[in-house]
Amino acid sequence: MSPAPRECTLELDRADPLPAARIVEQLAGHVPRHLPAGFGLAGVWESRLEPEGGLAIWTDAECREVTVRVYRGTAGEVDPAGPRVGEWTLVDDSPGCASAAPGETRCVSYAAESGADVLAVQTVGLERAEADAVVRSIPT
Fold first, then answer.
1. Alpha-carbon dihedral sign for residues 56, 58, 64, 70
2. For the chain, which ranges sit under pLDDT 70?
3. What are phi and psi of 77, to 5 degrees?
4. 89 - beta bridge partners?
5. Contact 31, 118 (CB under 8 A)
6. DSSP labels for 67-115?
7. Are 123 and 104 spatial neighbours (Cβ–Cβ below 8 Å)?
8. Half-sphere exposure of residue 87, counting CA atoms within 13 Å on the CB side?
9. Taken in order 72, 121, 69, 3, is the CA torsion positive or negative?
10. Euclidean distance between CA atoms 117 and 113, whole angstroms
């Protein structure tokens, strides 16, 4: 797995950094098999918040982001009523989000359940088709 091509400002609160080698463990195997060209791993973290879980962020030279989070033991919290993208539910597709100035950058978010866990993906700066391709590549 390639490292991120540059350091980007990432908004992480209450998470402890981990070695990149722990990515499969922290994401319980839910690692994207496809990312847009130029993306590399920015880091892996373990959440200090409840529910416990892990997260990883990939970025590119423009600081676009793909974030994958696993919330352990929280199954039953995903509303399946939204539009479907494979096994994933589209949660949000709008300009602006927490990682970017409102209205400036497209943010697309998804959720899925896997056993007792909830998986969440947020993309920042990707078009919908690119974001859909990423989540379809993540095993649930």
1. negative
2. 11-14, 50-51, 98-103
3. -100, -5
4. 84, 111
5. no
6. EEEEETT-TT---TTS-EETTEEEEEEEE-BTTB-TTTSEEEEEEEEET
7. no
8. 16
9. positive
10. 6
Cβ pair 126, 64 in contact under 8 A: yes
Distance (Å, whole) CA 84 – CA 90: 6
Token representation of residue 27 = 């994401």
Go through the domains of the chain in sequence order and give each one's CATH number. Answer: 15-136 (3.30.200.100)
The per-residue b/e assignment along 100-138, b for 16 or more CB within 10 angstroms, e otherwise, is beeeebbbbbbbbbbeebbbbbbbbbbeeebbbbbbeeb
pLDDT at 41: 96
Tell me: cis bond preceding 102? Omega within 30 of 0 counts. Answer: no
Per-residue pLDDT, 50: 63
Which of 93, 71, 95 has its CA nearest to residue 82?
93
Residue 23: Cβ-neighbour burial (10 angstroms; 0-12, 13-18, 19+): buried
